[in-house]
């Protein structure tokens, strides 16, 4: 039987902010979306005040002025996430990164290696992440992904680690509302409630024929997962994205041309690093500018040759920016979008193998320096 752990970073964005600024510990802290529109993460102290997830920032500040509100820093969160995932790989050869703050870890067979129970291994992982990275995590352990996800939610309310063993499944499902099950949303919950199905246990008692009529194949799979049969296997295969987008709001509204184009170049560098990590190149580069009044200007250009190198893309950004930028307009944010991603690189008639190799070597050196010393160790200037 499989043993799966779901590792979930606690209040991840807030934990990252507290990691770099310990003075925020034990205080009501909220992280807001890029445009300071709504609350996207809360410390336990902020939750205790009554601040809700998704609450508009202007309302939260008015009702809870004592809380600390921070604009999201996705660059920081990405770095910390990478460190968490790297730490998890030290404990198991097979992990599946589910989101920026969650990962499934295959513990099957590791009990003999570590000479510990699975719950003890989970506790060791939890303390290891805290010690090596500095952020707290909750870990749920069970025989399937769906049960491990449920266990991780219960772990948040206990001592940080929770296991649902095969013999515990029925009792656990009896006290679990159907809405708490991973993969069952509001509409499905309403549909099931209509037929008197309110607990996860009642869900597992639905006959397969009726389940197929209600929810199709997905319903049957969820039922099996809840009964302890692993249907959704852990996979470390990365599904290439169809596009890569890097955006952020400015610290202050601005119409400064140099400042905005520098922000675009920074986004391009982050997106190029992502391309290289996935062994992809982009055929299309898009530039987005959002004004103070939320009007969006967007243009894109097709490249002669796919690339993952910043300097090739900077020239195209400058051309798009010159055609898009309006000097008298005040802007609030900028962004870069890469589309038509490909693994294949066919050199054009006008390309230089020597120049491509030179660019690749420079990009690799740049990545290594940032991996060692952190982002921002190298800055690029603007060529007039």
Low-confidence stretches: 347-352
Average pLDDT over all residues: 89
Strand content: 15-25%
- H/E series: EHEEHHEHEEHHEHEHHHHEHEEHEH
Total helix count? 14
Assign the structural class, choosing from mainly alpha, mainly beta, alpha/beta, alpha+beta, or little secondary structure: alpha+beta
CATH superfamily of the largest domain: Reverse transcriptase/Diguanylate cyclase domain
Distance between the termini: 63 Å
Largest sheet: 5 strands, mixed
Q: What is the second-level CATH architecture of the largest domain?
A: 2-Layer Sandwich
**Which CATH top level class of the largest domain fits?**
Alpha Beta
Number of strands: 12
Net shape? globular
| CATH topology group of the largest domain | Alpha-Beta Plaits
| Residues in helices, as a percent range | 40-55%
Instruction: Provide the number of structural domains.
Output: 3
Provide a descriptive summary of the structure in words.
Helix 4 packs across helix 6 and helix 12 (257-277) runs antiparallel to helix 13 (310-324). A five-stranded mixed beta sheet has the order 5-6-1-7-8. It has a four-stranded antiparallel beta sheet with strand order 9-12-10-11, covered by helices on one side. The protein has helices at 12-20, 44-49, 57-63, 74-88, 110-114, 118-132, 145-156, 169-174, 186-194, 200-204, 208-226, 257-277, 310-324, 353-373; strands spanning 4-9, 29-32, 39-42, 68-71, 95-99, 102-106, 137-142, 161-163, 243-254, 281-291, 296-307, 331-342. By secondary structure, it is α+β, with helices and mostly antiparallel strands. It folds into three domains: 4-9 and 77-226, Reverse transcriptase/Diguanylate cyclase domain (Alpha-Beta Plaits, 2-Layer Sandwich); 12-73, MutS, DNA mismatch repair protein, domain I, CATH 3.40.1170; 243-373, Dna Ligase, domain 1 (2-Layer Sandwich), CATH 3.30.1490.100. The chain contains 14 helices and twelve strands. Mean pLDDT is 89; it is low at 347-352. The termini are far apart.
């Amino acid at each position: 039987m499989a043993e799966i752990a779901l590792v979930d970073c606690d209040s991840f964005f807030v934990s990252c902010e507290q990691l770099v600024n310990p003075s925020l510990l034990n205080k009501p802290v909220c992280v807001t979306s890029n445009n300071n529109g709504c609350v996207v993460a809360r410390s336990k102290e902020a939750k205790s005040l009554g601040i809700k997830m998704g609450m508009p920032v202007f309302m939260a500040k008015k009702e809870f002025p004592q809380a600390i509100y921070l604009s999201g820093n996705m660059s920081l969160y990405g770095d910390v996430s990478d460190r968490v995932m790297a730490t998890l790989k030290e404990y198991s050869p097979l992990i599946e990164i589910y989101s920026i703050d969650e990962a499934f870890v295959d513990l099957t067979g590791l009990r003999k290696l570590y000479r510990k129970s699975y719950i003890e291994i989970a506790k060791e992982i939890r303390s290891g992440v805290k010690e090596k990275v500095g952020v707290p995590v909750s870990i749920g352990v069970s025989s399937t992904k769906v049960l491990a996800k449920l266990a991780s939610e219960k772990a948040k309310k206990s001592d940080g680690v929770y296991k649902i063993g095969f013999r515990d499944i029925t009792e656990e499902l009896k006290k679990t509302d159907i809405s708490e099950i991973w993969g069952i949303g509001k509409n499905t919950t309403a549909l099931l409630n209509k037929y008197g199905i309110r607990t996860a246990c009642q869900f597992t008692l639905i006959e397969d024929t009726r389940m197929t009529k209600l929810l199709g194949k997905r319903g049957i799979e969820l039922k099996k997962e809840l009964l302890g049969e692993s249907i959704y296997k852990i996979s470390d295969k990365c599904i290439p994205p169809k596009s890569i987008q890097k955006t952020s709001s400015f610290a202050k509204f601005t119409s400064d041309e140099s400042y905005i184009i520098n922000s675009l170049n920074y986004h391009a560098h982050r997106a190029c690093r992502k391309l290289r990590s996935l062994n992809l190149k982009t055929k299309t580069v898009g530039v987005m500018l959002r004004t103070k009044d939320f009007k969006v200007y967007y243009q894109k250009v097709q490249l002669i040759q796919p690339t993952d190198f910043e300097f090739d893309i900077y020239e195209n950004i400058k051309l798009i920016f010159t055609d898009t930028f309006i000097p008298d307009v005040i802007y609030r944010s900028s962004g870069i979008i890469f589309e038509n991603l490909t693994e294949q690189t066919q050199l054009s008639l006008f390309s230089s193998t020597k120049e491509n190799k030179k660019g690749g070597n420079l990009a690799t050196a740049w990545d290594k320096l940032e991996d060692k010393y952190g982002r921002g160790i190298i800055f690029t200037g603007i060529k007039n």
